[in-house]
């Protein structure tokens, strides 16, 4: 899942991004509304965590523009304006969820994951295929009942493959969903990650390479 965090308080923005990355999510950060619109114009996000009181372009206007463009991401407003009227106003302009500051990070994670499930076709709580089971909430992977220890990036790649439900996923799609905007598109990081993931999942191999197209589980 790929997330955009839009928050002008840089320390808070970076802390949220770090926490989300620890949950195996790909995260980009924008520190103002104009930067958010620029990134949304280039990248496809599943969820946008959006502060309301932003410089350059107000968060409400960012939300309105994205909704008008039918941008596919789900939007959660994360703001200090947490009164009932504020929540109603935020939801009325197109936000999908609203969380007031201060907040419990565990709740933010739960809400981001819930919105991520709504951003695409509905997915079951635990993804399973070919004996491999992935539980996003528990950050747990098993194969035929055996626990498989994965790095955050390996977990993210496996989640994308399982979410495809047997369809081929290209390297470009994996870069889009499992890495952030700072990754070099010409790097061999996908191939290397796939090698280590296959090794950890064990035999017989369950991840197939489709030459010139991508990968399939």
Automatic annotation (TrEMBL):
Residues of the OmpR/PhoB-type domain: 124-217
SUPFAM superfamilies noted in UniProt: CheY-like
GO CC terms, sorted: cytosol; protein-DNA complex
SMART domains noted in UniProt: REC, Trans_reg_C
Residues where 4-aspartylphosphate is found: 51
Entry protein name: Response regulator
One Gene Ontology term of the molecular function aspect: transcription cis-regulatory region binding
Organism: Actinomadura physcomitrii
DNA-binding region per UniProt: 124-217
Stored Pfam families: Response_reg (PF00072), Trans_reg_C (PF00486)
Alphabetized UniProt keyword annotations: DNA-binding, Phosphoprotein
An annotated GO BP: regulation of DNA-templated transcription
Lineage, top ranks: Bacteria, Bacillati, Actinomycetota, Actinomycetes, Streptosporangiales
PROSITE patterns in alphabetical order: OMPR_PHOB, RESPONSE_REGULATORY
Sequence ranges assigned to domain Response regulatory in this UniProt record: 2-116
């Amino acid at each position: 899942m790929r997330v955009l965090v839009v928050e002008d308080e840089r320390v808070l923005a970076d802390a949220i991004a770090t926490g989300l990355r620890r949950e195996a999510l790909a995260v980009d950060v924008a520190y103002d509304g104009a930067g958010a619109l620029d990134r949304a114009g280039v990248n496809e996000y599943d969820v946008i965590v959006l502060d309301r009181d932003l410089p350059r372009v107000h968060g409400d206007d960012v939300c309105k523009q994205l909704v008008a463009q039918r941008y596919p991401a789900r939007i959660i407003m994360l703001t200090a304006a947490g009164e009932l009227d504020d929540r109603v106003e935020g939801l009325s302009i197109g936000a999908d969820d609203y969380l007031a500051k201060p907040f419990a990070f565990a709740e933010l994670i739960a809400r981001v994951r819930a919105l991520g499930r709504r951003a695409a076709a509905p997915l079951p709580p635990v993804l399973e295929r070919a004996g491999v089971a992935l539980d996003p909430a528990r950050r747990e992977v098993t194969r035929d009942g055996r626990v498989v220890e994965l790095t955050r990036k390996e977990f993210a790649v496996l989640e994308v493959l399982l979410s495809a439900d047997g369809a081929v996923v290209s390297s470009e799609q994996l870069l889009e969903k499992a890495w952030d905007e700072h990754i070099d598109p010409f790097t061999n990081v996908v191939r290397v990650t796939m090698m280590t993931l296959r090794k950890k999942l064990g035999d017989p191999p369950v991840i197939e390479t489709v030459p010139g197209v991508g990968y399939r589980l």
